UniProtKB/TrEMBL annotation:
GO terms for molecular function: DNA binding; DNA-binding transcription factor activity. Gene3D superfamilies: 3.40.190.290, Winged helix-like DNA-binding domain superfamily/Winged helix DNA-binding domain. The lineage of its organism: Bacteria, Bacillati, Actinomycetota, Actinomycetes, Micromonosporales. Pfam families: HTH_1 (PF00126), LysR_substrate (PF03466). This is DNA-binding transcriptional LysR family regulator. Residues 1-58 form the HTH lysR-type domain. PANTHER family: LYSR SUBSTRATE-BINDING, TRANSCRIPTIONAL DUAL REGULATOR HCAR-RELATED. It comes from the Bacteria.
Length: 299
């Protein structure tokens, strides 16, 4: 019994036609017929009923069919295992990241390199919108992105950080006397924000849209540190993560935004159906375990 005989039999059972089977498998039609006849002689039973215009599977053939499919699937599994290993030996991974994040990416990559020293790594920096697009297109295996409460369509994520987004102002700013403000308090005020396409900007625009207005952006920059410096000079209200602002309490005051509150999540993301490369899939497994362990230690 040969694998090609099982493959021919399964394909004829699915197509109901020897000619279509030959075309699908790119072999000569007489060869298909001859190999299935040889299989039937070996088993001592007919597997196919050829009496009609459409070839039908006999009762014996129906009993054999699931085992034939299982045998072919097992062979595919063997090939996949070899391909996965070969892919890791000569593999390549592409990782995207937002400009500002608190993931120990060098540490994660060092651990991954230790396990898979031959895999090449490419890093790319962009805003969240671009990274999401690249993940969906398959040009990136994984990425660190900033998202809101939902998950971008077509992606799977592991949350790395989830914290409130606040209004950051200088100590002599008129809003500095408040503990909490509503989003409507920011209507018409000069604001300092990350550019469009970033997670922070998207969260701000979503909250403002809910309140019925468009934020008045006076300054924008891709560096949170630069935004903080502008706000500390009294040039407007910067929209930044609370922990980032609290770490700069000498120059900035964080004011909680309520009704609605704004939260930002930093996540490790990959395509929901898995990265396209074996090395990429290995990186996802590695990162999920490492980030999960870090999250457990943080609780």
């Amino acid at each position: 019994m040969e694998l090609r005989q099982l493959e021919y039999f399964v394909t004829v059972a699915e197509t109901g036609n020897f000619t279509r089977t030959a075309e699908q498998l790119h072999v000569a039609q007489p060869g298909v017929s001859a190999q299935i006849r040889r299989l039937e002689r070996e088993l001592g039973q007919e597997l196919l009923d050829r009496s009609g215009r459409v070839v039908r599977v006999t009762e014996v053939g129906m009993a054999v069919l699931p085992y034939a499919r299982a045998a072919l699937a097992a062979v595919d599994g063997v090939r996949l295992a070899v391909d996965e290993l070969a892919g890791l030996v000569r593999g390549h991974v592409s990782i995207g990241m937002v400009t500002s994040h608190n993931v120990d990416l060098p540490g994660l990559l060092a651990r991954f390199h230790e396990a898979h020293p031959a895999v090449e790594v490419t890093l790319a920096e962009a805003n969240t919108d671009q990274l999401v697009e690249d993940l969906r297109a398959g040009s990136l295996d994984t990425a660190i992105i900033s998202v809101g409460g939902g998950i971008p369509a077509g992606l799977a994520i592991q949350v790395v950080d989830d914290q409130p987004i606040v209004a950051a102002v200088s100590h002599d700013h008129e809003l500095a006397v408040h503990q909490v403000i509503s989003i409507d308090t920011l209507r018409g005020r000069l604001m300092i924000s990350m550019p469009r396409g970033t997670g922070l900007r998207a969260r701000l625009e979503e909250a403002c849209a809910t309140a019925g207005f468009t934020p008045r952006i006076a300054f924008e920059a891709s560096s949170p540190e630069f935004l903080a410096q502008l706000a500390a000079r009294g040039l407007g209200v910067a929209i930044l993560p609370r922990a980032f602002v609290e770490a700069r309490s000498e120059h900035l005051r964080p004011v909680t935004i309520g009704r609605p509150s704004i939260r930002g999540r930093l996540v490790f993301a990959w395509r929901a159906d898995g990265p396209p490369s074996p090395a990429g899939r290995a990186l996802v497994r590695h990162a999920r375990q490492l980030l999960g362990d870090a999250s457990s230690r943080g609780r």
